[in-house]
Specification:
heterodimer; A: 314 residues; mainly alpha; MetI-like fold; flat; B: 322 residues; 13 helices; 67% helix
Amino acid sequence: MLKYSIKRILQSIVTVFIVITVVFLLMRLLPVEGYYGERADKLTDAQKEAILRKHGLLDPWYVQLKNFYSSLFKGDLGNSIIYRRDVPVVDILKPKIPYSFGFGIASLILSLIIGLSMGIHMAREKGGFWDNVWSAFVVFINAVPAAVYLLFIQMYVTSITKLPILFTKGNFVSYILPTVSMSLGGAAGYAMWMRRYMVDELNKDYIKLARAKGMPNKDIMVSHVMRNAFVPMAQYLPSSVLLTISGSIYIESLYSIPGMGGLLVDVIQRQDNTLVQALVLIYSVLGIFGLFLGDILMAVFDPRIRLEKEGGAR
Amino acid sequence: MTRKELQTLTAIEDDALFTFAQYDPEAAEKTGYSDYSYWKSTFRIFFKNKTALLLLAIMVLLVVFTVIQPYLPNQKDPTKIHIDPATGHQLRNHPPSKEFWFGTNVIGQDLWARIWSGTRTSLLIAIIVGIWEVVFGIFIGALWGYVRQLDALITEIYNVINNIPNTILLTLLAYIMRPSFKTMVIAMCLTGWLGMARFVRNQIVIIRDREYNLASRCLGTPTWRIITKNVLPYLVSVIVMRIALSIPGTIGWEVFLTYIGLGLPIETPSLGNLLNEGRRVMMSSHLRYQLIFPAVVLSIITVSFYVLGNAFADAADPRNHY
């Protein structure tokens, strides 16, 4: 396992460099008109050239890439070009990350609690009344687009429960609705898969044997069915935890939370290269690390899984 | 058996029961024969599920209707802007009526025609991307999961493609070629298979070293045969479920892309465009029909696929066969 982990981590470092280099080059393929900002038609050609020169966009691409990497190794992510002109990228991201991370983690925990218990209940009552009730919830969340049901929740639930309609820092009551509505999608997903995996597991012969020899139903559920059913979900857990910092684009715009949601999309469209690179660096490190941790977690949950090659394995 | 039955049994003195049976090669053959066929049994169980059959019928009707709708009499052009003859202006936000069954939108286009045209576009995208996802995603996922020599390489490819933001690819594609149906399908196919590949890979990693696969390896079964005969059949139920979710998932993705401004151009009606238009006017309750109608169509598609997927996944478990 240790040898495998070291190999994976070394490989991941290479991957991160490939990703940021590719993204760097792709951003340079975009039309230069994007860098002039909103008042592009009022600028003279000399002013336009000055803007491009200032951001080093007139150099050949390999010089730009070299400059980017030399400042990256000094720990300098650069200044924002357009989003908030000349403000260091670190200063832009630092206040935003805690919001997204906090809401993300809270809603992830909530959706795990709701989703898993719902899924377990559905699997136990398969074909019964509660199975249909929770299925209706899962289907509803999946069927109605998130952009629509989140807006309806904000409109109606705030008027019924008198919860604040917008997020205010320090006012904990205003944290409830964004967290709950953010967790609904995840809860539906976890419930759906937990049910599927448990239903498949419950049908297996070893469960029938355990039943036949009189093992209490609760023990069968907890130590056999749930543990096996959770393994495929464990793979996604670390990525979900780490990538909560990317925020939710819908929730954060609806409740005006100053987080990271939609920031990447926004800065790509406005061609703020330094900010794009910084975000891609962060997200790719977390995403790649999340995949790796997921594999480890899966092997921890199910010791039969061997990640490294041994013996005659293919 | 009750005591009485036992007594009656012993009371019968049937000598025929105590004679040796003759060897009959045909009868011996019969015991080894079974007409069990996995897919036949799966479909038989599936077609016993009444809810699933109903939803299947609704789905088929919906698909057939979206295809033949433009050829029906009295259908309007989805992009034609209707003019109010009384005022000479655009027929804005006309509520549902005999003339315009689902009303008109903010610039006076017929919503009925737009919804079916949009469903056609979105379903076509979803089906193309879905088929690609299934074929390519399962293929790559199976290799990624089972063949350890390929693990490092495919992990690398997955991580690189997965971490390049979709937005950049879509923006670039829209810049190189005009944003259209084609760019949308290409962009979605480029990254759409990743989720399926990772899903299949995780499932295979879990079962790849189970004893029956070990036994097959010891007997020298080729890798490809183990994947297609041992591993994938074991995963039919979860993979079917994942496939069933991929078509509504693709439509939802298109809605999301439209939301962030990277969807199909406005001239091409799609469910994403329609929902986005509807979402903008949903605050005024008399215009909410513009959101409800496309949302209902999308819901029918999603609900049907979800229930069908679950029913098929249940039917696919051979332990439920008899």
